[in-house]
């Protein structure tokens, strides 16, 4: 019987993974449990650095606002940086290991110094990075809402959870079998799964399909 791998992303986002698994004879089930929608926002004060926590935070911010030319752009990892660069902007800071959010946050705080920072965020953001900065140095603006949409799925042998919200959406109407391997897309997702008494087989150092494929190839 063929193995089944679940990942909490839509099929459109996982072409490379689908090809890799097909060669291995593993059936892919791709299903996101979250839906996104933009919300109106305004920025109260000027800022010197803008930190985009994900590609979505960048895209939803850009829907309603411009990035001043003199502002430095920062993000947690190379995937978000690649998107921002592709759209004609320069990223001045990004972490080497986006999956290790605590380490990246400390590096960003040191790099940022006393510069004033804008954090475009989701309504469900854990604010792991922004929490390291005093209120006087930061402004957090909600630029999009994340809504959980649950759906029952068949049992799989391997589970890949890409965010705490996706894990929550999955666990609302599903459960992880005892025999299954569980891979987590970063420390915050691992922490959420551990709170739910789910053992995580491995946590990705970088939140990317390429790193997942490399991990599965071992």
Q: What is the fold's blueprint, element by element?
A:
Layout: E1 4-7, H1 15-24, E2 27-30, E3 34-38, E4 49-51, H2 55-64, E5 72-75, H3 78-86, E6 91-94, H4 101-112, E7 117-122, E8 138-148, E9 158-161, H5 164-173, E10 181-184, H6 187-195, E11 202-203, H7 209-217
Brief account:
The chain is of the alpha/beta class and 218 residues long. The protein has 2 domains: 4-33 and 149-217, 3-Layer(aba) Sandwich (Rossmann fold), CATH 3.40.50; 38-144, Rossmann fold.
Descriptive overview:
The mean pLDDT is 93. The longest helix has 12 residues. The protein has two domains: 99 residues, Rossmann fold, CATH 3.40.50.10090; 107 residues, Rossmann fold. It starts with a strand and ends with a helix. Helix content is 32%, strand content 23%. With 218 residues, it is of the alpha/beta class. Helix 5 packs parallel to helix 6. It has seven helices and eleven strands. The radius of gyration is 18 Å and the shape is elongated. It has a six-stranded mixed β-sheet with strand order 3-8-7-4-5-6. A five-stranded parallel β-sheet has the order 2-1-9-10-11, sandwiched between helices. Strand 9, helix 5 and strand 10 form a beta-alpha-beta unit.
């Amino acid at each position: 019987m063929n193995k089944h791998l679940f990942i909490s992303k839509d099929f459109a986002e996982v072409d490379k993974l689908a090809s890799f698994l097909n060669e291995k004879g593993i059936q892919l089930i791709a299903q996101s449990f979250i839906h996104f929608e933009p919300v109106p926002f305004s920025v109260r004060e000027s800022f010197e650095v803008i930190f985009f926590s994900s590609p979505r935070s960048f895209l939803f911010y850009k829907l309603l606002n411009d990035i001043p030319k003199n502002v430095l752009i920062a993000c947690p990892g190379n995937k978000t940086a690649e998107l921002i660069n592709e759209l004609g902007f320069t990223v001045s800071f990004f972490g080497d290991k986006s999956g290790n959010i605590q380490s990246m946050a400390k590096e960003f705080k040191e790099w940022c110094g006393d510069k004033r920072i804008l954090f475009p965020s989701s309504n469900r953001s854990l604010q792991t990075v922004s929490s390291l900065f005093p209120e006087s140095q930061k402004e957090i603006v909600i630029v999009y809402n994340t809504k959980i949409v649950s759906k029952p799925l068949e049992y799989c042998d391997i589970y890949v959870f890409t965010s705490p919200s996706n894990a929550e959406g999955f666990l609302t109407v599903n459960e992880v079998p005892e025999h299954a391997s569980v891979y987590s897309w970063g420390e915050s997702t691992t922490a959420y799964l551990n709170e739910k008494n789910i053992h995580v087989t491995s946590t990705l150092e970088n939140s990317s399909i390429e790193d997942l494929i490399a991990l599965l190839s071992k």
